[in-house]
Amino acid sequence: MVFVLFPMFSLRSPNPGKGAFVALGVSNVFFMLPWQFAQFVLLTQIASLFASYIMGYLAAAKLQTLLLTHMISLLACFVLMFGNAMLLTSFYASSLVSIWGIIALRHDIAKYCKPGIVTWVTEGLGWLISTVILKGLTSVVLGAIDDAHISSLIKSKFTSYKDFDTMMYTCAAEFDFIEKETPLRYMKTLLLPVNLLIFAAIASSTIKDVWTYLRWTKTEPPKANQQDRPAQFANGELVYHILQLIAFTVLAVLIMRLKLFLTPHMCIMASLICSRQLFGWIKQKYKQQLLVFGILSLMAIQGLANVQNQWSIMGEFSNLPQEEVIEWIKENTRPDAVFAGAMPTMASVKLSANRPIVNHPHYEDAGLRERTKLVYAMYSRKPAEQVKSNLVRLGVDYFILEDSWCTRRSRPGCSMPEIWDVEDPEHAGKIPLCTILGRDSRPHFTTLFQNNIYKVLKVSKTAKDR
Question: Interior CA angle at 414 toward 411 and 419, to 5°?
Fold first, then answer.
């Protein structure tokens, strides 16, 4: 959460030094390098900062410095990731350019729009529309389609749309909507009630500031020396934090996995219960201290139970059937033999047996998604000859078949054969190929190894295939 805190330091200080912006840039680089989809989280940060600017809590000059820092860190990641075009064609990159353009045109906007709500709506819509258009143009120009499935995933959250790629995500619990138990857990630890209290305190203060500003602009138009958009109000860091909290809440509700950003940020927000700035209306300081102590004591009751529950989890990971497969591969196949199968299993084959593989868990790459789709046709209802032909075309020598992938079903409609029914309705209703091969792999495949989980099939290659 370091990348969230550095903008706060910049907002709190009237004249933040270069060190704060360098630290922000470095944290952004280290955040994006191991996870290229960090750009979507950083997009929420940029949106929160821009909203703070629109409402008058952030000066134009300081926002431009923050944007420049983000741009430099983005370009650094682009170079360090060997020219990953997905970064330059992202909504994050487009948003940076769009906001910069809106700030550059702020004088022209002020000429034609009345200060206040009209200006805010104009700038907000301008940012949204220009970001989408710029994203589309850069994707077409650079020919980048690696993140196309993300748009489909977002679309599937609000409509009935679904395809193979989106169902590969949405059928996993971590990419589904947030589970009902999460808000209950937040309630038990008092994290949610405390956050709601702090949110209400900041929101009420913000509404008062905005209302005062709107009334002032009606009676006294901004002077010429105010057109550079200095910050109209103090406490911009608090407004930024609640905007960021709203953004993280939306992400977590849509994709349960992303609550990994929401929960820590809620803990950060909860610390504001100690703020005299927010709770100065509690006149005696000792009363606020007693309140904080009481809340922490109540939090500790469930918190201690949670810690003890985690400490009680004992054991170690063991997957003996997979170890047997890996040992068989190392002893009975050539070092250049090519393998295909489920993405997690292929990662183990590459790491432990050092054999070439055609697919692995880096599903964000468009080419890899296409190859994985051809490989996963083994769990469809397509004819064996067609599936074998695709594997031969990929250069596959061995396929590791897992019965669990054929029968596993996280919820109705989410087994692999059912996912393929959406993509390939022509063969819907037929017996899945994996079921057929589980009984007898001939004539297109030959079973060389089998245990209670895995079956290694050799792809039969005829002279015609070669």
Answer: 165
